[in-house]
Amino acid sequence: MRRFARRFARSRSGVLGAVILAAVVAIAAVAPALYPGSPFRRVDRPFSPPFGPHLFGTDVLGRDVAAGIAHGARTSLTIGVLATAAAVLVGTLMGGLAGYCGGRIDDLLMRTTEFFQTIPTFLFSILLVAILAPSVWSIVFAIAVVNWPTVARLVRGEFLAMRGREFVQAGVCLGMTDARVIFRHILPNCLSPIIVTGSLIVATAILIESALSFLGLGDPNVMSWGFMIGAGRTFLRSAWWLCTIPGVAILLTVLAINLVGEGLNDALNPRLRR
Amino acid sequence: MTEGTGRGGFALRRLLQAVPVIFAILVLNFLLLHLAPGDAAQVLAGEAASATPEYMAELRARFGLDRPLAIQLLLYVKSILSLDLGFSFRHNLPVLQLILGRLGPTLLLMVTTLVASVVTGIVLGLLAAARAGSWRDTLISILALVSYATPLFWVGLMLIVVFSLKLDWLPTSGMETVAAFYTGWARAADIARHLVLPAITLSLFYMALYVRLMRAAVLEQADMDYVTTARAKGLTEARITLSHVLRNAVLPVVTMAGVQAGSLLGGSIVVESVFAWPGLGLLAYQSLFARDFNLLLGIFFLSACLVVAINLVVDLVYTLLDPRIRV
């Protein structure tokens, strides 16, 4: 663990990303204490400019933008992490099964993932959320559905490469059950690329969530950055901060996660180990 | 076998491979139709209230909604394959006609974006790789990183603030100045002016992707034996890069660009709704608000077909670029 931390610390951009991400997580964690009550409630007259009585000003209905940013961080991170967890779980299971069993299952999975690469996936997520009615769960579901094939393809490739290795064949010869070979011997060896891909999917998920809520498909009960930008776009000329600030929040968060992902890649990738 | 028929045979094989994909999209559409709230006839009719009871009854009969699901699927597929995508009461037009009318602007935006992002991606990637580690490389890499992390709709809004509201250089929305009644070249120039901001917005994200791919590909090629040979022959570095490395390094970018067609269409929904660009994406956005699921499903089906067609074209371009590929 300490060796890993040292390797990660070697990438300066990775550390920068980790610091920004830690700040976003901290803001999300303390949001209810910092801005108690609903971020949707009215606190002041509308269009109060930023850096006045309210850090980031107020919007058209007199809602505190800073409170929205803090509560929006919770929404973005929660949806990003939940959707990624689901995508990684399903993708690993399917990819592992296909890579280990091969044959028909493998064919079927490959056709399925190719299918998902072909269809306009964002339009598909929009359809899913619109039809299931917008809520945190339908958004998580829609994002996971379009992201699991990436993980499945990756895990399949890793499993395929591992299956022929001596230590796996030795395990099979010793009479281990398939489950034991898969979970105790192959999977731990594939964890690094899964973690790296997973971290990048969190970033993608946050971008998809923001686009969905910008289009008006966000959960109406929780504050989100995309929703704030969508609500503020009518006042682009008169109240620049309504769109700018949530956008910077998304940009910083996604950038930080991407940097961390790259740092993880450098630290975990055995080929680059010096 | 001559080269021509080889390519033709390849195209035909790829065309046949597209059939199961189209069928799978149809099944998916059918499932979504049944997942939607209300019975399928209500969904097919768009807003149930605006459809006449006769039309609803006709829909129920035509899609056999009282019969087993398998038969319903068959009837649905049959109806779509005869290019009947239903009727949108909100727009008072058949869905197919609506979609085809919006296809042109979307294709214009997509092709412009594809060309712009691939070209700038290749040029910037090449520039970054030529002096890896220099400040130029760092600058380009940072630009790519930031573009890759920015939500499309936000880039669009910020570009509007700067170039339309503050500088007043470019129009904020729409595809042309309808009231001006331009014709011929004047109209083309007007459309081009409207196209600049949406195309830049949509390009930035993909450009970032191609810059990183191109940079990695060029650096990978730089260690190859053929580069050493070229250098030993006494060719200049510029010549080596432009006529030897470039051609090989471009391949992964073209592959990626082909795969991205579907994602590009998704991105155009957001961009079109920001710039009120009258394409498929804006239509999707509007039907979302009108709760016109059938129109949305129609857009999904036809845009998926469009992506299949684009992938086919990209594969053919690929065989032209790399004659070794004869799958």
Identify the overall geometry of chain B: globular
> Strand share of the residues of chain B?
under 5%
Order of helices and strands of chain B: HHHHEEHHHHHHHHH
Q: Looking at the structure, what is the overall shape of chain A?
A: elongated
- How would a textbook summarize the main sheet of chain B? 2 strands, antiparallel
Give the rounded overall mean pLDDT of chain A.
85
Q: Looking across the biggest beta sheet of chain B, what order are the strands in?
A: 1-2
**H/I helix tally of chain A:** 10
Q: Percent of residues of chain A in helical segments? A: over 70%
Radius of gyration of chain A: 22 Å
Largest protein-protein interface:
A-B, 41 and 48 residues
State the distance separating the first and last CA atoms of chain B. 14 Å
**Over all CA atoms, what is the radius of gyration of chain B?**
24 Å
Specify the oligomeric state: heterodimer
Percentage of β-strand residues of chain A: under 5%
Q: What is the number of strand segments of chain B?
A: 2
Average pLDDT of chain B = 80
Tell me the major beta sheet of chain A.
Answer: none
Task: Pick out its properties.
heterodimer, A: 274 residues, mainly alpha, B: 327 residues, two-stranded antiparallel ribbon, 13 helices, 2 strands, globular
Summarize the structure in short.
The complex is a heterodimer of chains A (274) and B (327). With 274 residues, chain A is an all-alpha fold.
Describe the structure.
The complex is a heterodimer of chains A (274) and B (327). With 274 residues, chain A is mainly α. Chain A contains 10 helices and no strands. The radius of gyration of chain A is 22 Å and the shape is elongated. Chain B has helices spanning 3-35, 40-44, 53-62, 69-81, 95-130, 135-149, 152-166, 184-221, 225-232, 237-259, 261-275, 280-289, 293-321, and strands at residues 87-88, 93-94. Chain B has a two-stranded antiparallel ribbon. The mean pLDDT of chain B is 80. Chain B is globular. With 327 residues, chain B is an all-alpha fold. Chain A binds chain B through residues 111, 114-115, 117-124, 126-128, 130-133, 203, 207, 210-211, 214-217, 226, 229, 233, 236-237, 240, 243-244, 247, 250-251, 254-255, 258-259, and chain B through 20-21, 24-25, 28, 32, 35-37, 145-146, 148-154, 157-158, 160-161, 165, 259, 262-263, 265-267, 269-270, 273-274, 284-285, 288-289, 291, 293, 296-297, 299-300, 303-304, 307-308, 311.
